[in-house]
Every structure is written in structure tokens, then in C-alpha cells.
Amino acid sequence: MTARRPLIAGNWKMHKTCTEAEDTARELIEKVSDVSDVDIMIAPPATALAPVFRIIRDTPVELGGQNLFWEKQGAYTGEVSGPMLVSAGCRYVIIGHSERRQYFGETDENVNKKIKAAKDAGLIPVICVGESESERDAENTFSVLDKQMENGLKDLSADLFDGSVIAYEPVWAIGTGRTATPQQAQEVHSWLRNFLKKRFGQSSADRTRIVYGGSVKPENISELMALGDIDGALVGGASLKPDTFGNIIKYKR
Ligand code: PEP
User: Which of 103, 169, 239 to mutate to test the pocket of ligand 1 (most atoms within 8 A of CB)?
Assistant: First the structure.
């Protein structure tokens, strides 16, 4: 099995002005200056990307967008494209977050176009999938994930997909304080890796990082990271405080 370098990513959602984001970034780089064995990404709101990049460039902390539009430019008021994210300093972009799906009507077809646009721009897509509470209760978790993965990754070759990150984020665990049990998370991550194996082949599945998101905190990160198919975390609320996020990044190995 290929060793996968963990990714710990912070999604700041619609939080922080430019000044607040810069202060947070400054504190975070100080806190994690001695970490070299995980990839670290923060995704501030679009307005703070360029200012934050000026602070984190030349540090191990990398930048991600929270969303992108699939066209490169044009009359699409309010949207931001892949090349624009790259020009602001981004290396990653989060795609298909459940809040985008829930509040902005984002579909698997949109996700598919966004993944292609991200790869075209040279960005690493962090592709979010996950079931709602009612879907889990109805025992539809795997059929929901199958549809999200099948349609989201439609027409992607193994070469094009290569390097992408999958984020398993059970919707019922996002911002609720409820975390999937390590067994629940591992079961889904292993299913996702098997999906990738069938779709793109063994080596691609072995290389792909599958990260977990949903109320990750310093108290539960080590237990999650100890599992074979969990290659990191996408952290929301707990990434807003540099000290807490730093403690997640410095989880007990
Ligand atoms: C998220 O928004 O991706 C997330 C996982 O949020 P939280 O950590 O707050 O549950």
C-alpha cells in the first residue's frame, strides 16, 4: 500500500474580515512552524485569499478556495474562476461542500464541471460527498455516495482525477458536534477507496487521499487518523481558532 501524506484542511466558511483572516493566519503559521509531516491548507473567504497568501507564502501552510465557477471568465456576476483562485495564491479548491449543495442548489453535475475546471487551472480539488441524517437512517448512505461519486466523477480519466482529494463529510456531523464514530468513518472511507479502485484502478485508489470532515476537534482527531483509510481532515468550526486548529494539526501520531 502506498503511504499517503495526510492533509489537514481548514474551511473558514463565511467567517473573518481581511484583517481577522490575516491575524489568524499569522498565529497559525507560528503555531505550526515545526510541523513537516502533514500538508496544511486553509480556505478563507474569497475576499481574504490574496491578503492571507501574502502572509503564508513560503510557509508550509497552503491556500484553498471554498468554491469556484467552471467558466474561466465572463458575465457571471459574483463568481470566481479557477485561474482567479490560482492568481490569488490557491493550490486547492473545495468543491461540492454540503452547504453549497443545500443553500445554493449545487448538483453532482455542477460538481463534475467544477472538478474539470479546477484540474484545468492546476488546482487540487477537494471533492466533498456525504449523506444526510435521514439518508443514513433510511440505510441509503452507500446509494447516496454512489450517486454523488458516479455523477461527480463522470467522464474523468484516471489521469485527470489523479491528485484529487475526496472529503467524506456526513451532513449530520457538520457543525453539530456529532462526529461519526471511527468505525462509521472507516467503513465509508474503505467503501470510497473501493469505489476509486473500481473506477480508476488500484494504484490511483491507493494514492488518493480521503479525508474526513464533521465536527473534528483536537479531542477526536488522533482516533480518526489512526484508521487505515482516513488520510486527514476537513475542519470547519475548529479551524477558526489558530490554537485549536494548530492542536488538530499537531495530533498525537
Ligand atoms: C465543514 O464545514 O467542512 C465541517 C466539517 O464543519 P465542522 O468541522 O464545523 O463540522
Answer: 169
Distance in Å, CA 2 to ligand 1 centroid? 28
User: Model confidence over 30-81: pLDDT tens digits?
Assistant: 999 999 999 999 999 999 999 999 999 999 999 999 999 999 999 999 999 9
On whether residue 199 sits in a domain, the answer given is yes
Count: domains in the chain: 1
> Could you tell me the distance, in angstroms and rounded to a whole number, from the CA of residue 177 to the centre of ligand 1?
9
176 phi and psi angles, rounded to 5 deg: -105, -10
Positive or negative, the CA dihedral 100, 244, 231, 165 is: positive
The reported pLDDT for the residue numbered 1 is 54
Confirm whether pTM is higher than 0.85: yes
Pick from 89, 48, 97: which is nearest to 240 by CA? 48
Q: By residue range, what is the domain housing residue 52? A: 7-249
Is 1 within a domain?
no
